[in-house]
């Protein structure tokens, strides 16, 4: 992988422009939570603020279930009312099963160490009764952002459109996921059936981060690469009137 100065600049600008503001105080279930949680906002939601939130998770995740609830709300915040629905559902399910923060923390760490499909399945089943992996995969990315990016449908759409331009590897199994996002108007969510794509995405983010760190004079994490890709695709308002299969901003890795 070779990155020219203009390509590096494009990645830097995309990361610099990353924004994901979240109003935690808007959570409808605050009354169910002890004081001290859901009591702040990410006003800008830029990289610096988001890294601070990642750090908050790591400080408390081994002992406080509430910070797991906060991350679920954060992840779903762009989905309008679904953030309330998913967070309240998770609070109820975890309480009903008697699952404590320490158990989630250990299981998530097991996946980060092993990186296997089976280890992730164990963590996902502990956390969520859902086929979608997007929320569950947020936690390894928060736990170890140096090695793990998040992954969701927005990322899949961008890669489906730009795989060749950004040098994303497309094997037969990875191509099954990419073709679904290219060819179907409603491709559905990412599940464990898309694991080949997920593994390729994780490896690719690590590789790009390594090259950007070598060429940029600053340290890039796998999560930073994902943030830049997330930004490049554009948010809902930016994409209004934009071609469905094209990113809003161009990134290159050739």
Task: Please write out the topology.
Layout: H1 5-16, E1 22-23, E2 41-42, H2 47-60, H3 65-76, H4 82-97, H5 101-114, H6 117-127, H7 134-143, H8 153-166, H9 172-183, H10 195-216, H11 222-233
Describe the structure.
There is one protein chain. This protein is mainly α and 254 residues long. It folds into two domains: 5-17 and 150-233, no CATH class; 22-135, no CATH class. Helices cover 59% and strands 2% of the residues. It has eleven helices and two strands, in the order αββαααααααααα. It has helices at 5-16, 47-60, 65-76, 82-97, 101-114, 117-127, 134-143, 153-166, 172-183, 195-216, 222-233; strands spanning 22-23, 41-42. It has a two-stranded antiparallel sheet. α10 (195-216) crosses α11. It is globular. The N and C termini lie close together (6 Å).
């Amino acid at each position: 992988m070779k990155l020219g100065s203009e390509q590096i600049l494009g990645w830097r600008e995309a990361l610099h422009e990353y924004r994901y503001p979240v109003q935690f105080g808007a959570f409808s279930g605050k009354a169910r939570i002890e004081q001290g949680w859901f009591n702040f906002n990410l006003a800008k939601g830029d990289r610096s603020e988001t890294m601070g939130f990642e750090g908050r998770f790591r400080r408390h995740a081994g002992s406080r279930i509430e910070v797991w609830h906060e991350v679920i709300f954060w992840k779903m915040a762009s989905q309008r009312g679904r953030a309330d629905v998913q967070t309240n559902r998770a609070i109820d399910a975890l309480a009903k099963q008697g699952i404590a923060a320490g158990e989630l923390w250990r299981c998530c760490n097991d996946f980060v160490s092993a990186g296997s499909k089976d280890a992730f399945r164990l963590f996902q089943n502990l956390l969520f009764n859902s086929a979608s992996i997007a929320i569950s995969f947020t936690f390894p990315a928060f736990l170890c952002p140096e090695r793990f990016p998040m992954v969701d449908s927005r990322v899949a759409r961008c890669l489906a459109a730009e795989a060749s331009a950004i040098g994303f590897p497309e094997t037969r199994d990875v191509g099954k996921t990419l073709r679904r996002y290219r060819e179907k108007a409603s491709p559905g969510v990412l599940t464990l059936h898309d694991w080949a794509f997920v593994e390729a995405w994780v490896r690719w983010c690590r590789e790009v981060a390594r090259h950007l760190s070598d060429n940029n004079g600053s340290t890039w994490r796998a999560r930073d690469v994902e943030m830049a890709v997330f930004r490049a695709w554009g948010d809902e308002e930016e994409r209004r009137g934009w071609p469905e299969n094209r990113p809003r901003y161009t990134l290159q890795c050739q």
